[in-house]
Amino acid sequence: MADSRETNSGGSSSSDNKVVGVRRLKESMAKPASTRIFTVANQKGGVGKTTTTVNIAAALSMGGLRVLVIDLDPQGNASTALGVPHRDIAGIYDVLMGDEPITSVVQKVAGFPSLDCIPSNSSLANAEVNLVSMVARELRLKEALVEISPNYDYIFIDCPPSLGLLTINALAAARELLIPIQTEYYALEGLSQLLETYGIVKKRLNANLELSTIVLTMFDGRTRLSNDVAANVRSHFPNELIDIPIPRAVRVSEAPSYNQTVMTYDPLSPGAIAYMQVAREIAERGKPKDEINFDSNVVNINYKRDGEIA
Ligand SMILES: Nc1ncnc2c1ncn2[C@@H]1O[C@H](COP(=O)(O)OP(=O)(O)OP(=O)(O)O)[C@@H](O)[C@H]1O
Ligand SMILES: [Mg+2]
């Protein structure tokens, strides 16, 4: 990661549990024309949803973009990994219930120039039940986001491992679906159910939703299995797949126990480098159209006589 620099003194050694200083890349990342809202979903548990959410969000923030992570999982793993308090305070649950304005539950993430988090809390476990009787129960998150989404370039919603009302709310609120796929034997099992839910939400609730991004996680290039899964996903989703797999790497799994992302915990480790590359690729794909393929060599102005432009 040649372009990673710390702008402030400080930083953290692996034994710190606090991030000191602000990390920013020397070379910034492309800003999208409008806010890109991603739902990170896969109802299979433990495939790397949260790890992918927090590390891509952190990397984009280091690239100079304004990023918000919404922890929509009662487990609160994204809140933990980003080091924001979340146990006994108001969070996304209170917003969904209409008890708190969304602006009052946004927290800053230490160590990043522009990374915010709306934490989960334990009450979120009641949301699936309590939402059922509410008016427009699938659209609560979408409606809440209207007020703050213009403040960000990227919003990532980390979903629980289920296709219940919380995930439906996330799919209804997002423009893009990001599916992390773990490169292991049952990787594609259950994907059809997720794609079916995606299709229903797109048809009934959110015609703008697109499955735009697939990220391979816990990849082990030495095994035939990882390579076979990658080839299989590539053949089904050639445009959606980001062809930079995230390696299985111990530093990635250690980082949350220090309330950090791997981007600060060990920025030069293979996992951090891969997440940085994936984030840059996501930002490149989201560039405003007129910035893509711009080549100054093909701009050709023919001058007529008298300085008049043809
Ligand atoms: N690239 C990686 N290398 C090593 N371990 C990883 C990697 N990615 C994730 N893990 C570990 O795998 C476990 C599951 O990851 P994670 O919590 O991100 O999955 P998840 O899909 O969010 O899980 P859940 O379905 O419970 O929300 C965690 O212990 C995490 O630290
Ligand atoms: Mg998770």
User: How large a portion of the residues is in β-strands, by DSSP E?
Assistant: 5-15%
How far the N terminus sits from the C terminus, by CA atoms, comes to 46 Å
- Rg from alpha-carbon coordinates: 20 Å
What is the SS-derived class? alpha/beta
Tell the overall outline. Answer: globular
Summed over residues and divided by their number, the pLDDT gives a mean of: 88
**Percent helix among the residues?**
25-40%
Biggest pleated sheet: 7 strands, mixed
Number of helices: 11
Uncertain ranges? 1-16, 295-304
CATH third-level topology: Rossmann fold
Task: Write the CATH architecture name.
Answer: 3-Layer(aba) Sandwich
**What is the CATH top level name?**
Alpha Beta
Q: How many domains, as an integer? A: 1
Order of adjacent strands in the largest pleated sheet: 5-6-4-7-3-8-9
Number of beta strands? 9
InterPro entries: AAA_dom, DNA_Partitioning_ATPase, P-loop_NTPase
Pfam family, one: AAA_31
Report on the architecture of this protein.
InterPro entries: AAA_dom, DNA_Partitioning_ATPase, P-loop_NTPase. Residues 36-210 form the AAA domain. Pfam families: AAA_31. Residues 1-21 are annotated as: Disordered. The chain is of the alpha/beta class and 310 residues long. It has a single domain, classed as Rossmann fold (3-Layer(aba) Sandwich), CATH 3.40.50. It has eleven helices and nine strands. Helix 1 crosses helix 11 (270-285). The radius of gyration is 20 Å and the shape is globular. The site of magnesium ion (MG) has 5 residues, from helix 1.
